[in-house]
Amino acid sequence: MRALAVVGTPGDRRVTMFADACARQGLEEPAVVPWTSVLRGEEIGIAPETLVRIDSPGEDAEADALLRGPGEPSRVGGGARWYAGFVAGITRVLRAVAATPGAVLLADVEDVSVMFDKRRCHARLAAAGVPVPPALPGPVGGYAELRERMGEARWGRVFVKPAHGSSASGVVALHASGRRVRAVTSAARVSGGLRNCLRVRCYEDETEVAAIVDALAADGLHVERWFPKASLEGRAIDLRVVVVDGTPTHAVVRASRSPMTNLHLGGVRGDLGAVEAALGPRGWEAALEVCARAAARFPGSLAVGVDLMIGVDWREFAVAEVNAFGDLLPGLEGLPGGGAEGLDTYGAQVRAILARHDPAGRARVPVGNGRRGA
Amino acid sequence: MDYSEFNDDVDGLYRGEYAGLPIVSLRPPGAPMPGAGEAAWRVSVRVYSAKETFEEHFARFTETVDTTEVRALIIGGWAEAYDKDASGPIRLLAENAARFPALRSLFFAAMPQEECEISWIQQSDVTPLLESFPLLERLEVRGGTGLELRPVRHEHLRILRFEAGGLPASVVRAVGMSEFPALEYLELWLGTSDYGGETTAPDLENILSGERLPALRHLGLQNSEIQDEVAALVASAPVVARLESLSLSMGVLTDEGAEALLSGVPLTHLKRLDLHHHYLTDAMVERLTATFSGIWLDVSDRQEPDGEQRYVAVAE
Questions:
Q1: pLDDT digit string (tens) for A202-216?
Q2: Greatest CA span in chain A, whole angstroms?
Q3: CB-CB neighbors (< 8 A) of A314 in chain B
Q4: pTM of the model
Q5: Does B83 touch chain A (CB under 8 A)?
Q6: What is the ipTM of this complex?
Q7: Taking the CB of residue A77, how many other CB atoms lie within 10 A of it?
Q8: Which residues neighbour A4 within 8 Å (Cβ) at sequence distance 6 or greater?
Q9: B82–A154: do the CB atoms touch at under 8 Å?
């Protein structure tokens, strides 16, 4: 079997869980190329014939400082700089792989770059007919412009997303009508800028809401029309569906009393069985089909995490995000019938890597054969 | 009475059951639909970017479904319900009341938070719903902003619920001044002054005397930022003697309010006492559990203050 390497943060769960999955399938422990080393411009050492996976820098403070510049890690903002550094980093990895005989990059730099730009990601999905909420076209420079554009579009409620944010950082759920505003966000104003909090807050003072949006706008905003989500037992829900090699293999329900369902913001894992039951067999198939179609727009990516919203009436779907590194779902086993039963998200990817790149190797069963229910 | 069908989920009632009937929305022409009397009909249009007006949808509903058999209606959202008040849908229902002789259960403005935050729902005067449907047995209304009620006499109403992040004191007074000889279940979410819930003791006087509520078996005075004060009032209220169920849940209930309950009129005749979502200490929870060991007691969902802030369950 060819050697594996991971660009990641040594010791980070993403790296160790992928290594564990390799070990379970009889593979050597992957070498780790530290993100900090990539970002510092140090030489990227890759052995010939290596299959190179790119993972997230995670929450490593040093990598964050290299990407966004020095500062408090919980601050919101700096997304544009983060993005430039990140794309430069993965491009360096791509060049290093290209210069190494027989080495293969298990990711597509363009795919990843698009997924980390919510405007481009939205445009790519919309162009392919994947259901997404409509978005305001073009740049939105600040709060005043946002309200003007919302007025023109007759949108009373929107999701304001930093173009390069992740984990709901800086996302604002905004409801506005005249001077009456209501903004729900995990960003909190502190002296010198915005800070991420672990509790979403509600702001109803327009001056404050304007200050938050203006601060976020500097790094680019993506604004989508509100898509009212279905709820279960008083909690709004969405699905994170991991699609490995074209097949939706893993799914979790995220449920929250606030519009942000992220688990670190008070969201909880919801009851997948209840969601399946509410959708019915055809609805459930349709939901997975939407996820597979979204993932298919990123053909160079082994696995993506699709955030799927289900409409309040349980009939419509819309993709909120496609995440390049949306596979961190510890302990989650594959969906029944999804071809990755008994495997976690990393195990499913290791098997897909073996199927693609090591036809004479150990794992024989491919992770599915394309779309389900098509 | 099946108390389990009432909760604080602020659900959209898109699926499941309402008033013992499966919830059904109008289906496209040609699609099979249940008999008009065998469903709780959900009538609504989208709050955002609606494709048809509520009036158009309602007309389509009345043309498609035999309204003379409809027993339960859920009115969901109307276009831009955060901006346009409820007077249009209310007028439409009132004007068409004669077409719904069998209607017994009505939920008005069943919008979940994702569709419209409870304090953003622009309510209106809901008195016409009671005046136009004299045989109605169950009325539930969501949203306190702009909500009005005039005192009425209604012979058949058994269940009355107001869900609000802030219930206007004038509505609380109007409930107290109304005559509801058949009312068994009354639930009011008093809310917070931030959202127009400014009820004080005198506003609750007529309800707590019970004089105009001879059939009352359940009283819920909930979701209040002055839950301790409400508990103290309830603890000496004449109406309590006729109750089998009491709810002081969802609010800022602390040991002070619970102490008042324990030292007031005896409550041990109750079958149910719902205090969930509270700020009680372990010691107080133990005392309550011991005192009410023989009854159904809910002291779940204890809240931790956020600094000095204590929140009710549903405000925004």
A1: 999 999 999 999 999
A2: 66
A3: 14-15
A4: 0.93
A5: yes
A6: 0.91
A7: 22
A8: A22, A27, A28, A30, A31, A50, A51, A52, A53, A353
A9: no
